[in-house]
Design goal:
mainly alpha, four-stranded mixed β-sheet, two-stranded antiparallel ribbon, about 60% helix, about 5% strand
């Protein structure tokens, strides 16, 4: 792609992204990252607060530094957009895809919406993955330590970044050990130093990912074979490769096809095509199969996840397509296998363009929905609280993850009855309990008595029977995130 076209697409991407983040209402996961960074007193405190998050701390460390410069979360959104734009630039400038394929991908669902508009740690992982792919075709001995350094950082982005490191590290190590330039002397030292750097990155990532004993999220492992669960996990392949949402207001994390069994059977050819395509490149095939199995196994045994997690299946496929241009091929002897892989190689570009066209449609739809409708009702609710001077009241919130959005917008701590503590970000330990309405009201009335005044109770659902104990004063239900509708009640100590 010529430099002028690259600049035009990058600037267009950034401008459209800037327009969207001005409209996008931050939801709980985005606020969680910012609040942990903002409200951690020191870096040691930051990593202590991250113990329950299930993420390494690279993104949060960047936010920690940023939050010392400004308390405004818009800074996080701009930083995230810069990361996403840098990813697009690397892809456009260095990837071996056609101009049309590049255009389709850049404005597709994952780079244009999921990993651009929604400020999470996955965008930095995508940038580092593409940097690895861009550097990999270079002379391996000269760039080996650079590649290992990229993998070190990639392992610090997310558990899915760690999975990618394990798969790509395998290819890097095998390639290095078969490269004659890594002979005795400086070459061997560089090889050992790079391996040590990769291993250190993996170990550091795992150390941060292991949850504390009192963690309350993703408890246990699913080790038994459960057919419906297996079907649902394999079906995520379809959702990742064909991420067209259902045509509805609550589109996010949905798929045009809802039946898991149909998605399972549609996933099978999507699984088979890359395997057949790369039979002539066994090293690349090993990276793809190993990485895919890592993600699917994790989804089955530990944490099923959402579209932002499942998207790494497609991102891995795209990275392998990129790397395939620089890895050698070998001839196949079996006639049937040769015909199958030849068929896939002939139709590869059509297959890729077809998928990327679907991604473009999904990206445009998601962008338009987020631009035109509230992603979360949190910002509108916070505005109402400020406009009506309710922010001077003591506040309590249930469910706490939804209420934490208002803790962010109002820049204050809220009492969380479910865990019986004050806070901004959520601590996902076993102190968090599900409460009945009567239990919530009992705790909030006691809070009102302790403070000798009214308490503003923030709910993300209506109280079933508040009677005289709570008076509803407002509700805000326009939210694409179903859990982030808000109902405001005034609660007095006397009921």
């Amino acid at each position: 792609m010529n430099p002028q076209l690259t600049r035009s697409l990058v600037l267009t991407f950034f401008a459209l992204g800037l327009l969207l983040i001005g409209r996008h209402e931050l939801w709980q996961d985005e606020w969680q990252s910012w609040l942990i960074a903002r409200d951690s007193a020191t870096i040691a405190d930051l990593f202590n607060n991250l113990r329950y998050e299930g993420h390494p701390g690279l993104w949060h460390l960047g936010l920690f530094i940023l939050s010392r410069l400004t308390p405004q979360p818009l800074a996080m959104q701009v930083l995230h957009l810069v990361v996403a734009t840098a990813t697009v630039y690397v892809f456009l400038k260095f990837s071996p895809f056609t101009n049309w394929q590049k255009f389709l991908f850049v404005f597709g669902y994952f780079p244009f919406f999921e990993y651009a508009a929604i400020s999470r740690n996955y965008a930095s992982g995508l940038l580092l993955l593409f940097l690895f792919c861009a550097v990999f075709p270079s002379t391996l001995r000269k760039k080996f330590l650079v590649l290992c350094g990229i993998l070190f950082l990639l392992a610090q982005t997310s558990v899915y970044g760690l999975f990618l490191v394990l798969a790509l590290g395998l290819a890097l190590v095998v390639t290095a050990f078969t490269d004659k330039s890594f002979g005795p002397g400086p070459g061997t030292l560089k090889l050992l130093a790079g391996l040590a750097l990769m291993v250190a990155g993996v170990c550091l990532s795992i150390l941060q990912l292991v949850p504390p004993p009192d963690s309350g999220v993703a408890l246990g492992w699913t080790l038994d074979f459960i057919w419906p669960h297996f079907i649902r996990v394999v079906a995520t392949f379809w959702e990742s490769f064909v991420p067209i949402p259902a045509p509805q207001y609550h589109f996010w994390d949905t798929n045009l096809i809802s039946d898991p069994y149909l998605k399972f059977f549609l996933s099978l050819p999507l699984l088979a095509f890359p395997v057949l395509l790369w039979l002539r490149q066994p090293l690349l095939l090993g990276v793809y199969v190993f990485g895919t199995l890592e993600i699917l196994t994790f989804s089955y045994t530990k944490y099923f996840g959402s579209i932002r997690h499942h998207g790494h299946l497609f991102i891995l496929f795209l990275a392998c397509l990129w790397l395939s241009a620089s890895l050698p091929s070998k001839e196949l002897k079996a006639p049937l296998v040769k015909r199958l892989t030849d068929f896939c190689r002939r139709h590869k570009d059509r297959f890729v363009v077809g998928l990327l066209t679907v991604h473009l449609l999904a990206g445009v739809m998601a962008y338009g929905m987020d631009l035109g409708y509230p992603f979360s009702a949190g910002r509108e609710t916070a505005h109402y609280i400020k406009e009506n001077h309710l922010d001077s009241l003591v506040m309590a919130g249930y469910e706490d993850d939804a209420a934490s959005v208002l803790a962010g917008y109002l820049h204050r701590k809220i009492y969380y009855p479910g865990s019986h503590r004050w806070g901004s970000f959520i601590i996902s330990d076993q102190k968090r309990k599900s409460l009945k309405d009567s239990e919530i009201l009992e705790k909030v009335r006691q809070l009102a008595a302790n403070h000798q005044g009214e308490v503003l109770l923030i709910m993300n659902r209506e109280l079933a029977d508040p009677a005289n104990q709570a008076v509803k004063i407002a509700q805000f239900t326009d939210s694409m995130v179903p859990a982030e509708k808000y109902y405001l009640y005034l609660v007095r100590s006397g009921g």
